[in-house]
Design a protein that fits this description.
By secondary structure, the protein is of the alpha+beta class. The protein is built from 1 helix and 4 strands; from the N terminus they run αββββ.
């Protein structure tokens, strides 16, 4: 069982995707994932070279800066939104 302190304020099915975004941003900035906080998470649609996609847009706060990520709903991939 996951300790309450390690749960994020997002629905359970989105936990893995948001954690993946946090870890990626922390690694890019040289910060531990605990220094990155989600501020907004919502389902979104977008278009990329593979066609229409659906997933999460995850806004994160790290080192006083806001960052936006996109992630697959299952948490299998996350990347900075361009």
């Amino acid at each position: 069982m996951t300790p309450l302190a390690s749960k994020l304020p997002v629905p359970a099915p989105w936990q893995a995707a948001v954690r993946r975004c946090m870890a990626d941003l922390g690694e890019r900035l040289g910060l531990p994932p605990t220094a990155v906080a989600p501020t907004r998470v919502e389902e979104a649609d977008w278009r990329d070279p593979q066609g229409p996609q659906r997933g999460l847009e995850v806004w994160l706060l790290a080192a006083g800066q806001a960052h936006c990520y996109r992630a697959r709903l299952d948490g299998s991939a996350a990347w900075p939104r361009s």
